[in-house]
Every structure is written in C-alpha cells, then in structure tokens.
Amino acid sequence: MDVRDAGVQLHDPSAIVAEGGRYFLYSTSYAHADAHGNGAAIKAWMSCGDLERWLDIGHVLARIPPWVRQLVPLNQGLMWAPSVARFGRKWNLYYSVAAPRGPYQDAAACIGVLTSTALWPGAADYGWTDRGPVVCSNGTGTDWLHRRGDGYCAIDPEVVRVPAGGGGDGDDDGGVSGSAWLSFGSHMGGIKLIPLAADGLPLRGAKPMDRPVPSRVYSLATHVSRGNGRVYPWLTAFGVNAIEASYIHHAGGWFYLYANWDMCCIGAGATYNIRVGRSRQITGPYLDAAGKDMELGGGTLVIGAKDAHGNSASGHAGVLELRHASNRSDRRLVLSSHYYLAHGDGRGLSFLQWHELEYDAAGWPRLGARHVPKLRL
Fold first, then answer.
1. Which residues, at least 6 apart from 75, have a Cβ–Cβ distance to it below 8 Å?
2. Disulfide check for 47: which of 23, 256, 266, 310 has CB 3.0–4.6 Å away?
3. pLDDT tens-digit series, residues 44-59
4. pLDDT per residue over 167-187, tens digit each?
5. 180-184 and 158-161: which strand pairing?
6. How far apart are CA 171 and CA 72, in angstroms?
7. What are the helix (H) ranges across 11-134?
8. In whole numbers, what is the pLDDT of the chain averaged over residues?
9. How many CB atoms lie within 10 A of CB 148?
10. Is the preceding peptide bond at 285 cis, omega within 30 degrees of 0?
11. Which segments of 4-52 are extended strands (E)?
C-alpha cells in the first residue's frame, strides 16, 4: 500500500481555517529533516469544500528567518507546530523554533510570526512577511541541574480571541472585548498565556532582532509527577506527565482549554492523549469535569492514547466552526488533530483526522463520528 493512500500525512496540525470557500491548515513537515527532526519546516494544506480531501500546496518558508540565529543560535533549521489566525485583513501564522531538544527541555526557544493578506498561493496579494519573535524563553529553569530560565518553554503557539462582551480578568489587558491572547508551553513549564496587541503582534512592538518581554504571563495548566509528597517536574522531560499543544475554544460562555498529556513523537508507541478543562475567564482557572484545576494537574479525557483500532497519540487539537451559508444559526463543530497509525505500511507515521464535536447539556465536549481525510493527488 502506498502510504499516501492511508491519508494526509502530517504532524502538529493547526486548527482548520476558512477563506474564500476553501479550507486551510498548516503543519510540521519532516520531508527534508534529518533523523533528529532538524530541518523540519511549515507545510500548507488546502481543502475545497468538504474537509475530506486535502491538497499539499507547498512550504511556507524556504529558510529560517535571520533573527532566529541570534535568539536561538543552536537551532538547526527546525520550525514546527504552527497556528494561524485572522486579524482584520491579515492572516498571522505563528510557529516554533528551538535548539535541539535536550533531555531537560531546557534550551532556548522562540515563537515567531509571519503575516499575509491571503492564504491561497494563487492570490495576487499572497506572500508571507517575517514579523519577528512574539515570545522567547531561555529555558524552564525546572530541571534538577539548573535553577534558571524564564519558567516556561516558548513553543506550541495558539491564538485565542476574547469575544465581544469580555472574558478577561479585568486587569492588565484582560477584559477588553476583542482582545487577543497567545497560549503556549511544553513539558516542565506547563501551559502559559500572554496578551497580544490588537494585530496579534507583541504588545511592546518588538522589532525582529529584539527579544520581546511579555507584560504578564499567566499559568493555566501543568501535569507534574508527584511522589512521597514531593513534586518531580524534571520527569516531564522524558514524557512522564508532560503537557503541551494547548488550544482554547470559546463556546456557550465558556473558554475550553484543550491540551495534550504525555509522550509525543515516537511513532505508534506514543502516549499522547487530549485533555480539557473550562473557565468563564480567558485567564482561568480552568477546571475539569471533576472540579480539579488544570494548573494542579486536572484534565478531563477527550481522546485517549489508543483508539478502538489500536491507533495512538491523538494530538494538537483545534476546533473549526462551520456555519450554513443561508442559515448562520445552523452550525457544526469539528475537532481536528493528528494520530499515529498502528498498522500497515504507514505504521508509526502521523496522519490527519477530525471528529464531529458538540458540547453536551452539562457543557462538556462530546465527540461524534471520526473522519480520516484523504490526500488529493
């Protein structure tokens, strides 16, 4: 079997977005990477109408922007885990850059952003412009050897917009209708949240070669190992009780924080699973269905580490809201993610999937039918 027949091979998909009757998503591409992932890039995908067939429309960037060499000097050409969002007439594409992952996930990292007026490469106004870093980190400072760093890892970006009517905490830049925020984070540092400017760029307007400093960093979720009353966050560097790949969806007056627990990126043996909590405010606290704060390790299971067919490690959740063209109140929700194939020629490779999504009477996500899109050749 040709691996392409298994589906759309990708990793770390962004949420699906719509423009001009087409759907787009972005993902990590390892097509030109070495065995350690160095050289991975951001790939663009497009579907015309039904989300069931996707076309590979090429890479977004041919090379790493020059500022990366200054702020993340050990980076070896790796870009991954993109997120895309619309700001007025512009699209912002966020992505991760970091030094090679050491055993402690405690190296320099940044989240960069590109802007373009259009997503379709055939449009006259298509073209991505480097806008520099949004947030950077010098390490989590939580391993047992080094007590230093920013306390977070600046990778796995995701943008969330506060809708008209508020949703913030009323101080700093919270509580402003239509404000923009960036959730991010991985492993020992947990999931963080920072406010953005109205155009999705850093509030301080940093230039490409500057290291932007957030005005405030909110802690949303952790997943730490505990034993004999002590906390051992360094274990997350090895995938034990790790957390990353956050996504915040606003529905029914709630902000839902989706995040991945456990081990990614080792093929069919990966233990990634998707968890969720919710809050009335963008800045939290996010509680799971049992009332436990995600900052204290809470998280209700959405998709487990294995499905009924033995496939594993669903990750990087994103939500798309579909509305009927003639009836805007008729809406359908789609939860997209990647998964690792457990059998066949593509065993251990990751592919795109999406589930029909609804929120039940108690306001918690419930998944419906699963779809595995095909590659349009």
1. 64, 68, 69, 97, 98, 99
2. 23
3. 999 998 899 999 999 9
4. 555 443 344 567 899 999 987
5. antiparallel
6. 32
7. 67-71
8. 84
9. 13
10. yes
11. 17-19, 22-29, 41-47
